[in-house]
Amino acid sequence: MRILHLLNHTRRLNGHVHAAVDLACRQVQLGHQVAVGSQGGDLDALLRSNGVETIFASHDRGPDQVLKSFLGCGGVLRRWRPDIVHAHMMTSAVLAWPSCKLLRMPLVTTVHNEFEKGAILMGLGNRVIAVSGAVASSMRRRGIAGSRIDVVLNGTIGSARMRGRSEEPQNLDHPAIVFVGGLHPRKGLPDLLRAFDAAFPHNPAMRLYVVGGGPHQDAYERTARALPCADAITFAGPRDDPYRWMLGADIFVLPSHADPAPLVLSEAREAGCAIIGTNVDGIPELLEAGRAGILVPPGDCDALARALIALTTDPAQLSEWRAKSQLNLDHLRIDRVAEETLAVYRRAAGGAG
């Protein structure tokens, strides 16, 4: 099968990019011809080294450039002649849809960020992949027919992007609590800072490490500096090796207010962390409905503090939850994601025909 993935860019530190790159590389390993059309980025080298062709496809939406982007995308489809076009973001879906109609090529879309207003445009696909059951429910509420939606839960284990990474744990003080994510309100870091401050007196040896960057980093650092436990909080900034920090952690916390199916939970579970996540969107699905990680209500700093206290003051509970993180871990392998996605392609091709 000839598969063309379309996405805005191939830069690191974007979950939808990582998911698309992981999938494309695995599809080549399964014997398919695969290309990625985008405006490029630092993951292009990884794609090419895994046999994925990289093609420039403008995604510029500026008033003077959008027509050029439409025509450029159509030109890519005409030249490469894919059997399946797989769009990973709203701009890609909109640019590809007219040419897919004209050329009678099936279009598959993946909804990575359903909280965005433009996510409804992902319904342009013949088939719509939701990265969690929660995303599928949201898209149905927005008017996309359930008969066109397929759920393919995210997973990263065994992906080409993970090969060659360092397996040396980051040297951290213990008990070590790690957060990895973008520093913007949706990820809920202020809740974790307040919860950590409340839990700290129960075990002053605990340390919090914040890995990631974003537009609110300065504000969050100011908040942390004003806390009595400020000396126990480290902002490590964006890192190319976040998995090392997970390997060095005792506890991984994801306090998101909205998160369709965060790849970072797959990585944290693979690293063997005890996990605390919020009971929102796709997080419960990635934590086996609370069997592989502790679930707390989003925005509930008291509940989050109680979970931190329990894990940092009771070694038996910490060991128990680290072991539970391994429950049904194989379900988060990229092999399963690729096979389920190929099944969606076959349905899309049948429907388009």
TrEMBL record:
Residues 14-155 form the Glycosyltransferase subfamily 4-like N-terminal domain. CDD domains: GT4_PimA-like. InterPro entries: Glyco_trans_4-like_N. It comes from the Bacteria. This is Glycosyltransferase. It comes from Methylobacterium oryzae.
